[in-house]
Amino acid sequence: MNGKKINNVLIVCDKLKPNAVAYLDGLKTSLEQAKIGFTEKGYVGLMDFVDMIVVLGGDGFMSETINGCLNFHKPFLGINFGTIRGFLLNDNRPDIANLLAQGRYEIFKLPLLHVDAVSADGILYENDSEGNIYVERSTSQCAKFNIKIDGVDFGKEIMADGLVVSTSLGSSAYFLSAGGAAMHPLLPVMGIRSICEIWPPTLPPLVLSLDAKIEIEILQPQKRKVRATSGELFTYENVVQVVVGKSPDKFFYLALLEGESFLKTISKKILRVQEEKNG
């Protein structure tokens, strides 16, 4: 582990998770015992004294917190209180404060995806996501679209429920469920996978360089309305063109405690998927 002693943390708790709320008081007590200061109020002046942002919740809440606190440039330590644990989170364990006080954690610098979307009204939207970006149908009609990657045609008049573009970090979520591969989060790649495609019936998932530029042109947008979304982070309705690539200037830091590893998370996810398939 290559961390330094943590002196002060910001705690962000999902108050809609009773188990996270119940854990919060015990965490505060253990932080006090480890002589680590804490606050639940994040603002610019105070954040100068915070070494780490500790997030209690599930993957979705962690993702929201990361995107909401990017400008603080602090590492995020996620503690799992969700249904299924992804790469963003550490297991809920009793020794977290001691591990932080002793610097027994590792920090990873990770990229974000950037999306530019144009609506049928000509409105330009842009945003960033650390995990997945979806282009999906918003009516009973399937979506119809063309795909170019770095200017090269990779699909004409594809008919599907949509597609998902994923960072390697986000690959163990819906990208994996849609038939893509679970990729190690430190690989500098992104994945793209169509969702429930009708045509062509054998369009494979693709793993691309993180520097790739993916252009999606929506066909028949008035008849086949499509949205670009990253779950609870943002949703842009009735888009006609979407461009996805690596964010040129944004990234974030993720902390893993001693004993945690990305490979363990991949293993748990794959075994769970296999169990569900086997009934």
Spatial strand order of the main sheet: 7-6-17-14-9-10
- The ordered string of helix (H) and strand (E) elements is EHEHEHEEHEEEEEEHEEEEEEH
Backbone shape: elongated
Q: What is the count of DSSP helices, taking H or I runs of 4+ residues?
A: 6
Give the mean pLDDT: 91
Q: Which secondary structure elements does this structure contain, and how are they paired or packed?
A:
Blueprint: E1 8-13, H1 18-33, E2 37-39, H2 44-47, E3 52-57, H3 59-68, E4 76-80, E5 89-90, H4 96-101, E6 105-119, E7 124-129, E8 132-137, E9 143-149, E10 152-160, E11 162-167, H5 174-177, E12 189-195, E13 206-209, E14 214-218, E15 226-229, E16 235-236, E17 239-257, H6 262-277
Parallel strand pairs: 1-2, 1-3, 3-4, 4-5
Antiparallel strand pairs: 6-7, 6-17, 8-11, 8-15, 9-10, 9-14, 11-12, 12-13, 14-17, 15-16
Characterise this structure.
The protein has 279 residues and is an alpha+beta fold. The chain contains six helices and 17 strands. The protein has helices spanning 18-33, 44-47, 59-68, 96-101, 174-177, 262-277, and strands at residues 8-13, 37-39, 52-57, 76-80, 89-90, 105-119, 124-129, 132-137, 143-149, 152-160, 162-167, 189-195, 206-209, 214-218, 226-229, 235-236, 239-257. The strands form three sheets. Strands 7-6-17-14-9-10 form a six-stranded antiparallel sheet. A six-stranded antiparallel sheet has the order 13-12-11-8-15-16, with no helix packed on it. It starts with 7 loop residues before the first strand and ends with a helix. The mean pLDDT is 91.
